[in-house]
Amino acid sequence: MKIDAMECAGRLLSRPSDAPMDIVVDRVDSRYENHSSRFKLVNKDFSRQYFHFYAQRLSCMKQLLLPRVNQKWGSDIPVRTLADLKEETKERCIIVGTLFKHQELKPSILKEISEEHQLVPQPQRTEFTDDEDQLVLEDELQRIKLLGDLSPHDVITGVVCAVLGAEHEGGKFQVEDYCFPTPSSPLRSLTPPTEDRYIVLVSGLNLAGSADVLFPFELLVDWVSGWLGDVGEQKNQALVSRILFAGNCIRSQSANRGAALQHVSEGLDQSSTLDAIKLFDDFLQQLTSNIPVDLMPGEFDPSNCTLPQQPLHCCMFPKAAAYKTLHSVSNPYDFEVDGRRIIGTAGQPVDDIASFSRISDRLLILQRTLEWGHLAPSAPDTIRCYPFADKDPFILEELPDVYFAGNQPTFQTKVYKGDNEKEVRLICVPKFCSTRTCVVVNLRSLECHPMTFGDPILDDSSEVDK
């Protein structure tokens, strides 16, 4: 389903002369609660090693995984550690550990240094998989190479997994089957709205990189604010209770790194960023005067580069910050609105998994992270991440109602069914700067559709709506 915002503008221009002009349409109220406190960095200590982070992930997810292991394979098969394995017995057992992918093409700082000295020239790559990639399973003490049905091209480093099989010659484990710690249905039941309520998801505005996005974005702002369409259209717009910007509103790609290192055009990049922030503040002021706004940082926004990204400081948006409806939030972002639990990221984990695996479908990648029970399993291996020592905040312990990833090439969506037929709406939010498209989600039915403001730059024929 696609709705062209130009039609909405046309309705406003074709309003009958006798149409009532004094009708006031009130926006619906909404219940909101932020559950992202676990992503807030209180004491920043970067001196710790990542061993503690992986140990906490394995310890926590093992407790979530064991009930699924018993449900899938029963309680008769013993759960062993790698230290308990004996090659001569070839005992059929279950091992729980963290997967590690040995990839020769994985970027290395040593290779980059060699490249700078022109010792080992290497081509630029966006994908780092190879037919010779191998899987290793690591528990609290040891590691072992995996053979069998679990393909290294379908997983990534950092995924916690239980494997069923036996040790064979050469100290290798032959995998018969495997199980992931997919989150269970929530223990606390929520009450969704009985009438239509909508939220709007937007990502990848790239205000500093493209002037062509201004007019489509202005149409979006006017539509959400209720300035487009007749009274009937405005009543529909009044059912939108919240708008969420899912990252990369200022920039959707990095500046010229080489030029920055040589101090060439560095001032120009800073100037364009400041101008974009001021412009975005003007748009946010119009929005926050009409509707609650959630603002997430993205990979290329002026925020910390490590996950979890901390909220953008409100001093960057002095006009919009005057309204209590502006909520600067973290990335990832976990919240509850009108009885629906919603969680998502600005898209870095999905992009990273696409580069280090052979899963090309972004929607399938999003589903896999849900099944793996982790928002960013490749952190800190290939995604920069804060070295947590006593927790892993990215673990998904319960299924949300909506799970999204921002800054994706196209709009995609489907419904994932978990335990007890619990439905999760998966959404890939497209880059607005190229697709001119946002996503409208109905909180009552969990149905969603794209809404396009103008002609997209990229072909969106690959959109999927299941």
TrEMBL record:
It is found in: Nucleus. InterPro entries: DNA_pol_a/d/e_bsu (IPR007185), DNA_pol_D_N (IPR040663), DNA_pol_delta/II_ssu (IPR024826), PolD2_C (IPR041863). Residues 49-178 form the DNA polymerase delta subunit OB-fold domain. Its main location: nucleus. Pfam families: DNA_pol_D_N, DNA_pol_E_B. It comes from the Eukaryota. One of its GO terms (biological process) is DNA strand elongation involved in DNA replication. Keywords: DNA replication, Nucleus. GO terms for molecular function: DNA binding. Gene3D superfamilies: 2.40.50.430, 3.60.21.50. Residues 199-412 form the DNA polymerase alpha/delta/epsilon subunit B domain. One of its GO terms (cellular component) is delta DNA polymerase complex. Belongs to the DNA polymerase delta/II small subunit family. PANTHER family: DNA POLYMERASE DELTA SUBUNIT 2 (PTHR10416). This is DNA polymerase delta subunit 2. It comes from Megalurothrips usitatus (bean blossom thrips).
